[in-house]
């Protein structure tokens, strides 16, 4: 069902892409972040990716840019969240930061709101433990770029209700997505595997076994991946990769998840991938 009010918390790469996708499917969107600068960057990102979405889907399938932006309200506060049927959270991969957000949401949102946790690695049951209605908390792991990816990894926590799962299914199918439902575990399926692949690829660069472009070429030509692991890391954001690996390392205590020193150095130097203009590859700035 379109024309719902959907609140999106976090206007970074994932949040801005999700806001665009939801608006293209007829929903009213509240896109919240902490600062006006973050929201300005989000609007620029939406304007940048819109032509690619239009090209892929065809102009008859999506509204004009002005119509689509007219469905998105950019906000630095929680005004209007009481009207939202669904809240999707996309903030940084840090549990304490998420705790603050969910405590606010639990106080401000209506009792029957569905909480979609778009986390990379943090287990859904940890988020649900913060809420007065843990049965309405479910993982919605969208892939980047959201408007161009049809898969959503849906994570059912131990206390997620059947009704919440069905509401999630109805919502996502209505947005043209395909669901794969998995059980709760740190990193779920996608990132438990992907983060290992990325981390090991970074180690190969660090050990001078191969250059980033050649590593990615092996995956694209040898395994027919559309994008290599290092370009994928740049797209996700190397800071997000680092935070995800730290969550996995802390959760499992397995040294295979320990972040490579090169990753730590790059994040420390502000080389975050596409969002900073340079990571393992260089990118033109979004104007």
Keywords:
single chain, 287 residues, alpha/beta, Rossmann fold, N-(1-d-carboxylethyl)-l-norvaline Dehydrogenase, domain 2, eight-stranded mixed beta sheet, globular
Give the SSE layout.
Elements: E1 5-9, H1 13-24, E2 28-32, H2 36-57, H3 65-70, E3 72-75, E4 86-89, H4 95-108, E5 114-117, H5 124-128, E6 137-142, E7 151-156, H6 162-174, E8 178-183, H7 190-206, H8 212-222, H9 229-236, H10 238-252, H11 261-268
Parallel strand pairs: 1-2, 1-4, 2-3, 4-5, 5-6, 7-8
Antiparallel strand pairs: 6-7
Uncertain residue segments: none
Q: What's the number of extended β-strand segments?
A: 8
Our count of domains comes out at: 2
- Which class best fits the helix and strand makeup? alpha/beta
CATH level 1 name of the largest domain: Alpha Beta
CATH topology of the largest domain: Rossmann fold
Mean pLDDT: 95
H/E element string? EHEHHEEHEHEEHEHHHHH
Find the CATH superfamily of the largest domain.
NAD(P)-binding Rossmann-like Domain
